[in-house]
Amino acid sequence: MEEILAEQLKKPRCLLVANPGDNLMELKGLVFTLGMEISDTFTLSKIDIQPAYGMGSGKAEEICAHAKAVDSDCIIMDFELDPTKQRNWEKLCHLPVFDRQEVILRIFAQRALTKEAVLQVELARLEYSLPRLSHMYGDLARQRGGSYGSKGSGETQLELDRRGVRERIHILRKELDKVIQNRETQRKRREKTNIRKAALCGYTNAGKSSLLNALTSSEAFVENKLFATLDPLTRKLFLANPSYETAEDFSQGPVAKGHEILLTDTVGFISNLPHSLVNAFRSTLEEASYADLLLIVLDSSDPNVFLHYETIKEVLQEINADEHETLIVLNKIDVNTDEFTVARLENQFPSHIKVSTKTGFGIEELKQKLYQKLFTSKSFLS
Questions:
Q1: pLDDT at position 71
Q2: Which residues sit opposite 327 in a β-bridge?
Q3: Sheet holding 97-99, edge to edge
Q4: pTM of structure
Q5: Which of 135 and 188 is assigned the larger pLDDT?
Q6: CATH number, domain 11-106
Q7: Which tens digit of pLDDT belongs to each residue from 268-299?
Q8: Where are the domains of the chain?
Q9: Is residue 212 scored above 70 in pLDDT?
């Protein structure tokens, strides 16, 4: 009985495969978030693109043999696999084989809590799986149904399932349209108040939710895993006027004590985000495009921080938010002890704020900078 229970609790083991020169750090983080164990990694020495497997058949057989040798339950590619190549791999290895897109989709499915997130993830998964349905069936999918003659062969199970998936996709899109309309109604109500808005944008696990908690004393869910939160969370933040206490000349009227703003935490970005997810989560991602100011949160302790910044810019460009006023926030500065990296960050981002949500360092300075940007900057006053 104990052996059966242990077998059920055993985490799936996977072999990770990468192109030459690729850093598997991100894929390892995704696999860890998904709750899987890594049996080993395999980096290709060169790219030899072939139609059947995306590489030569000899190299594909070598990878399959290695997966079995290290007792892997599946193989995960750090590059995109089209449906045909995925079927070929699974026939060759007799193991589940999928790419990083499917890993991200599975993580999103685990993390989706609200109605909108559940609908968005289901839509993305169905759109991803539709061209891959045929690899679930063998020769039975081609068998005739019914009697021969004028009635024809009838629909195969594959055709029935495809039709069912398309109908479900149509229903999900209609339901999402209603949710998006509700979001737009809420957004229009906020716009009528004429309150300034700021949005936290950044790579997944950069500390956006922790920063929201530190600034607003809220209790947003925080976890040291990728895509801990999927839904945008908006909170009010009061920004004190730094010049209020020191102002002595009241001849031109009283000096305002400060102003309230709306601060929104958005879903984390990641490189090569599946296009189906970008489309499904467009209404969520577009929260950033309606903000007056974007706080681009960077994990200063991450060795790939500069690549992450490029990914953030690409996603912002895709949702038409790349022209917005921005403020760079270098988070986790207490963790970063590499003086060379800090110097490079300071050089690339001359106008930045260093913070640590763990120690509270820089939080008050960030609030003052937000006030300056939103209420005294010429771009907002004009």
A1: 95
A2: 295
A3: 37-43, 13-18, 74-77, 97-99
A4: 0.77
A5: 188
A6: 3.40.50.11060
A7: 887 777 666 776 666 667 778 888 999 999 99
A8: 11-106, 113-141+157-193, 195-244+256-381
A9: yes
